Amino acid sequence: MRGHGLLLANYVPGNSFIHRSPLAVKFLLVFASGLASFLIVDWRVSLTILAALCGLFLLTGAGPKRLGRAVRPLLPVLLVIGLFQWWQLGAPTAGRIVLNILVCVVAASLLTATTPVQRLLDGVVAAATPFQRFGADPERFALTIGVMLRSIPYIAGTFADVRNSARARGLERNPRALVLPVFITSVAYARQTGEALAARGLGDAEGPDVEA
Question: Coiled-coil segments, which residues (predicted)?
Answer without folding.
Answer: none
